[in-house]
Amino acid sequence: MAGQLLTAGLFAMTGAVAQAASPYDYIIVGSGPGGSPLAANLARAGYATLLLEAGDDLGNNKNYSEMINFNLAANDEKSRWDFFVKHSSDAEREAKYEHTTWRKPDGSFYVGLDPPEGSERLGIYYPRSATLGGCAMHNGGVCNLPSDDDWNAIAESTGDDTWLAKNMRQYFERIETAQYLPAGTPGHGYSGYLNVTISDPGFMQRSSDVQQIASSIISVVGGGVTRDINAPDPDRDNSTGVFGLASHADLNGHRVGTNTYIWSTLDDPAKYPLTVQLQSLVTKILFAEDADEPTAIGVEVLRGQSLYKADPRYNGTKGEVEQVYANKEVIIAGGAFNSPQILKLSGIGPAGELKKFDIPIIKDLPGVGEKLADNYEGGVLVLANKPLNGSSGPFAVLLKTPTARKNRNIYGWCKSFSFEGFWPGFPTEYGPSEYECAFVHMNPRSQAGYIRLKSNDPQEPPEINFNFFEHGEDEDLTEMLDAAKIFRKAITAAGEPIGPFNEKHPCPGVNQNCTDAAQKEFLKLQTYSHHATSTCGIGPAEEQLAVLDSKFRVHGVKNLRVVDASAFPFVPGAFPVCPVFMLAEKATDEILKDAKASPA
Fold first, then answer.
1. Of 50, 430, 474, 560, which alpha carbon lies 20 to 30 A from 363's?
2. Which residues, other chains included, contact 263 with Cβ-Cβ below 8 Å and sequence gap of 6+?
């Protein structure tokens, strides 16, 4: 079967097809950094693979193909799925989030704390990307590997040493084409599908305001803008200071990864057996009726454009129903919000929740949708005393604050820009004097969020509550505050005439003396995030909330795996996209190993 990409309008409705007649060995649901590489790899190994994506292909749209346009991509209704989440169950605390989104009576959005009369509170905006390539098509592209301890913890909990950091590095080397290092630099790859570059460091050789601020930051924290952030150094997880910010883009700034790898597979003269079907919203997994234990055999799909209610273009269309079958396995890769939703709608999840919505129970797995995790994000945003001259891409800053538990705990990125989280129409631009060091607080102590069904309607988004700061609040806020103090000191070291700086947050004003308590309160109330993970986490079967084994197989269900960010038992480092690319490679090895052991 030659590679092919189809949209919903090209399908013939076939009804229930006998499993034995299926043209597909594997069905993969979702085309993000888990699903797309896995589908391409299985097809390249000779297995007929069907990749299902609810959105369209926007790979030739410059909002997506050019990494610099990621804000435009995340705001584009052609791909957006608009989720609205909670940060806690405390209504009073939620009411203080400054970028709360409301639906006005005329149907448009209002963002803020004083909505027009009659507006409906939607919550905290958390956009996801429904397009061929998933969220790797609207993200900032940061490619940062987690600490060795993050990988080793999975090995320790499962007893599977293939997860040890020393064994996981091979997957990064397999996928990478490093374009910012001399060929042969240890720990990197040079022939993979994933180009990795850093922001042009040339701005440091030209005198300018942004160069002076960067030099000031380096003078305070150390390092340099060409340091290799993904180097396999023995002390890497405690190395701090300025680094080059690595991203999955080529030297021309073109986004690479999910979409480009799918298309290179479809266009290859070898005619790999890959089929991509767009505008295909999976509603549930199908199971064999005569099996001794639950066995996945296919999926039910709604065909049509903008069928999910999170899509801003949704107009009430129900779509056409079709069932598609797999000879070998079904792999769910819908992401941390949608993978648990699909499992629950299929009868896999907490029995009490499934009964509430009259969903027949296939497997009682209490952990499905639980342990939702994300890093906390904040930043020190200032306005200089003059318009800033010069320009640069972002550079990375890694910190280990005084109370960090073991490894460095802060990933920052600095440049002349403004980023304060997500809301419809973000960001707020403050003009040519703006400068920010935004940051991610890694490995938060609390992981108490959840994804729960609102109904048994597969077109309705689930309820999402991150339950931030449920545990370890003061410890995590202290680390965030210490990071803010370091970034403030580093930026303001630039001095006059660039300064004095008028800080927007977390300590507003010029040379203000804010209390620690006030800054912590701001950081707690205005924390944002966009790297959800862990709602179908890997863990041993005896662990109550574990959903997957170390081979990505759903506990107690045959021929069903989950391969995406939801599989991580906790957030892997600062940014999960490259770790998820690595998951896809590991899953490829596990699936092909099983296929060779059971060729029938």
1. 50
2. 59
